[in-house]
Write a structure and sequence with these properties.
- There is one protein chain.
- It contains twelve helices and ten strands.
- With 309 residues, it is an alpha+beta fold.
- α9 packs across α11.
- It is globular.
- The relative contact order is 0.13.
- One of its GO terms (molecular function) is DNA-binding transcription factor activity.
- It comes from Mycolicibacterium hodleri.
- Keywords: DNA-binding, Transcription, Transcription regulation.
Length: 309
């Protein structure tokens, strides 16, 4: 399991809100939910994404833009449009459609003039696992047409136009696929500055060590056992890991364990502190609590109480 595999698993679509509209100008759709991630693309025509505090971004056929919440944004036919904004959000999803295909207030027009067809998916993100991924993203992320996501958009366009059993599951999985394609292309862009873990996971030495840590974070890892798994000396692993990731291997492991523990504390209400400690590799709950407070700033019990409903 790569670092990216682990981080993206907390960003799974589940009942994602989809809209597909064919619009004739002028228009202004104002998305007010501030979803953690919202993916926007057009299949034909063009428009602009105008997000709070960011310069306007053009959206041409098969371009993809991801907006990171809690920023809200508006999709317009042109910057400075005279159209009155139509508020779009979860609360105005059409009930009998389950919020998956159409939103109340979206203007569906098919007058043969070749309007703009918009597809947008609001992405729920839960827990702490994906926080390093979200933190690595700008408020507005764009990937131009012509990449690996284009075939996915063809599938999305076909599926959104249907009204058949199982549509929601298909849309969710297609959105997962589209998001992965978009993020990979954005991290790999020639002029990009990807997070340290993105480049490190492709290193022949550090990548092996990261895969071992993420595959079994509860294992009793030492520098020696990690170096053996990566087939290098301890000194080589320690230096290369610190140079590429920015911290020693066991410091990275502790932070990742505490991230996993943070989600377990919230998700498993009946689990004791000792249960959570064992699951992330600590036989001693006291030692786990000390490590958790050092990394997260509060002890496990305080953290759980603060996030309990």
């Amino acid at each position: 399991m790569s670092v990216f595999d682990d981080l993206i698993r907390g960003v799974r679509a589940n009942g994602s809100l989809f809209g597909s509209s064919t619009l004739s100008p002028p228009w202004a759709l104002h998305f007010v939910d501030g979803a953690p991630l919202t993916l926007c693309t057009v299949l034909g025509g063009s428009g602009w994404i105008v997000a709070d505090g960011c310069p306007p971004e053009p959206l041409r056929p098969y371009d993809t833009i991801v907006v990171r919440g809690p920023t809200t944004f508006t999709f317009v036919d042109e910057v400075g449009t005279a159209a009155e904004p139509i508020v779009c959000g979860e609360d105005c999803a059409t009930p009998d459609q389950g919020g998956t295909r159409h939103r109340l207030g979206w203007s569906d027009v098919d007058d043969g003039t070749g309007g703009t067809t918009l597809i947008v998916g609001a992405y729920p993100v839960r827990g702490e696992i994906s926080r390093p991924l979200l933190d690595a993203l700008p408020v507005i992320l764009r990937v131009d047409a012509g990449g690996t996501g284009d075939p996915v958009l063809d599938h999305l366009a076909a599926e959104v136009a249907l009204d058949v059993p199982g549509q929601q599951v298909v849309l969710d999985r297609l959105l997962d696929w589209m998001l992965v394609c978009t993020l990979r292309e954005w991290f790999d862009r020639p002029d990009g500055e990807p997070p340290a873990w993105w480049a490190a996971q492709r290193d022949s030495v550090v990548g092996d060590a990261l895969r071992l840590l993420h595959a079994d974070p509860a294992a009793p890892w030492t520098i020696a056992s990690l170096a053996e798994g990566a087939k290098v000396s301890r000194s080589t692993l320690a230096k290369r890991f610190a140079d590429l990731v920015g911290e020693p291997p066991l410091t990275y492991l502790t932070r990742w364990r505490m991230t996993l523990a943070a989600d377990l504390l919230v998700e498993r209400e009946k689990a004791t502190i000792a249960d959570v400690a064992r699951e992330v590799g600590y036989s001693d709950p006291f030692g786990f609590s000390v490590a958790f407070k050092r990394v997260r700033g509060v002890n496990p019990s305080e953290f759980r109480r603060a996030l309990s409903p």
